[in-house]
Specification:
By secondary structure, the chain is α/β, with parallel strands linked by helices. 33% of the residues lie in helices and 24% in strands. The strands form 2 sheets. The protein has an 8-stranded mixed β-barrel, surrounded by 4 helices. It has a 3-stranded antiparallel sheet with strand order 1-3-2. The longest helix is centred in the middle third of the chain and has 19 residues, at 198-216. The model is unreliable at 33-41 (pLDDT under 50).
Length: 316
């Protein structure tokens, strides 16, 4: 007679798929139910001779899958290397990606069907580099109705004026585009050895932001990582929206409570229509907040403050 043992263990919802695959390989049946509003996994074991052995194996696999790698668990739908610290990001309703030449020919129609609502794409870097895929990406995203924005990667060994001129020359000031993005990171591993003087660096940043706003008519977004923010931007009052990289914890835990509009939550994302892994991003708010952003180019939470300066008034 076949015996059955049910083992009920609470696991992160995002981790369930990865854990289930591992357990099924052992012949263990797994399903999900809700108990008092919490999603839990139910492990059902049917075996004549080894129920205890299989139950032990199931428990060990669950513990290993949830605890290994400092919060990293096995691949799940949409991410090859998910971290429990960003589980909240996966639940946010407005999801997007950012792409560059590494993703080659992106099929934006397929990505949109896979739930992607926006894309930021690399356009320029320094004073003379154009991402070779930018012109095609820009037109293809527009043709598919995918909200799109261009980003410039700041080079600390070229003048801000030269970089601003290059961005202005190469990036169309399309009225239907998302606000432009200034990507601020240290160029680790580059032959460029930046002067990390805070005031001089901020002067370059402001020059570039002002030029991008003049060109597009939209307040630029600042993308940055933990190191650059700590060294240069922390505590600096700026009207710009922030797009923050944080792949192991919520941004507010890594950026001294800096208010963010976009959260880059993984670099190992998987999206239909995109070749290989891709950065995935989430917008902070609801569908209503998203429509405000699309219509004004500004974060709804500061719309009133920025409107006083004449920004955020344009409806596209």
């Amino acid at each position: 007679m076949t015996r059955r043992i049910n083992v009920v263990i609470t696991v992160p919802a995002a981790a369930f798929a990865a854990i289930a695959v591992r357990l099924v390989q052992f012949g263990i049946q797994v399903r999900q139910i809700f108990i008092k509003g919490r999603e839990v996994s139910v492990i059902e074991i049917r075996d004549r001779l080894r129920p205890r052995l299989l139950a032990t194996a199931a428990l060990l696999l669950l513990i290993a899958a949830c605890a290994r790698g400092g919060g990293i668990y096995g691949p799940i739908e949409g991410d090859n290397r998910p971290h429990r610290g960003v589980d909240r990001a996966r639940m946010l309703p407005i999801q997007g990606i950012d792409v560059a030449r590494y993703q080659e020919n992106v099929n934006f129609a397929t990505a949109r069907r896979d739930g992607i609502r926006f894309v930021f794409m690399k356009a320029t870097e320094g004073k003379d580099y154009l991402d070779p895929n930018f012109p095609a990406n820009w037109q293809r995203a527009r043709a598919e109705g995918m909200p799109r924005g261009a980003y410039h990667f700041m080079n600390w060994c070229s003048s801000a004026a030269d970089q601003a001129a290059w961005f202005t020359k190469m990036v169309p000031a399309d009225a239907d585009a998302l606000p432009p993005v200034l990507d601020l990171e240290w160029q680790n591993g580059s032959s460029c050895k930046p002067n990390k003087n805070r005031e001089q660096t901020l002067a370059k940043v402001r020059t570039m932001l002002e030029a991008m706003e003049r060109h597009t008519g939209k307040l630029p977004i600042i993308y940055t990582d933990i190191n650059f923010h700590r060294d240069i931007l922390e505590g600096e009052p700026l009207p710009n929206m922030f797009w923050l990289r944080s792949t192991a914890a919520p941004p507010e835990q890594r950026y001294a409570n800096r208010q963010w509009t976009f959260w880059q939550w993984t670099q190992t994302g998987v999206v239909a229509g995109v070749r290989g892994e891709v950065d995935r991003n989430a917008f902070y708010g609801s569908e209503t907040d998203w429509q405000v952003f699309l219509n004004t180019g500004c974060d709804a939470r500061v719309l009133g403050i920025l409107a006083v300066s004449g920004r955020c008034a344009q409806t596209w």
